[in-house]
Write a structure and sequence with these properties.
This protein is α+β, with helices and mostly antiparallel strands. The protein is built from 4 helices and 8 strands. It has one domain (4-172): Aminopeptidase, CATH 3.40.630. The protein has helices at residues 19-25, 45-56, 113-127, 142-150; strands at residues 4-5, 9-13, 64-70, 75-83, 98-104, 133-137, 154-159, 167-172. It is globular and about 40 Å long.
């Protein structure tokens, strides 16, 4: 999988050396990244290594799951650009819908990293021909919704199309 760079950030493939960071990032049971999905709390380093193996196995010219790091190597979070899982797509959702999502470590929030990382990945994906991207947020996740707006995503309103729960849906088309 490719590395994507922005002014301050590198979005790079996950490595086994990132396991402790991933375990810390995903150990908070309150911080569930995918609305309506089962909690993704990790309990062991073995869980983190297994997750890294799955993320590294993504070989696609557009899709991916990256670790967000500063250009000097400080790990900040994760970003994914993946088809919405089929288990999550309701009858009115599309099998080819691609979702962007991010999760930052609490100490990295509020500094524009999510917006910068997502903007870099969107630029790369649209340059590779992706026709649209969705973001599915919990109604109370105002921080992620603000990132969506800064990215120029269009709010499509509330939906139950994905993840079997009510969420706010955003869409971005190539400029």
């Amino acid at each position: 999988m490719r590395t994507i760079a922005s002014d301050r950030l590198l979005l790079r493939p996950w490595q086994d050396d990132d396991a402790d960071f991933l375990l810390d990032l995903r150990s908070d049971p309150v911080d569930v990244p995918v609305p309506g999905a089962p909690p993704t709390t990790m309990r062991t380093r073995k869980d983190a290594l297994a997750s890294i193996g799955r993320m590294r196995a993504i070989e696609h010219p557009v899709h991916g799951s990256w670790v967000i790091a500063t250009t000097n190597g400080l790990l900040l979070g994760s970003l994914l650009l993946l088809p919405i899982p089929q288990w999550a797509v309701q009858s009115s959702g599309g099998p080819d819908d691609v979702e962007i999502g991010w999760r930052l470590h609490p100490g990295a929030r509020g500094r524009g990293y999510a917006t910068e990382a997502a903007r870099a990945v969107l630029h790369d994906a649209f340059g590779r021909g992706l026709p649209k991207v969705l973001a599915v947020t919990e109604p109370d996740n105002h921080a992620s919704q603000a990132v969506c707006r800064r990215l120029g995503m269009t709010a499509l309103g509330r939906t139950t199309k994905y993840y079997d729960t009510v969420n706010d849906l955003f869409e971005k088309l190539p400029s």
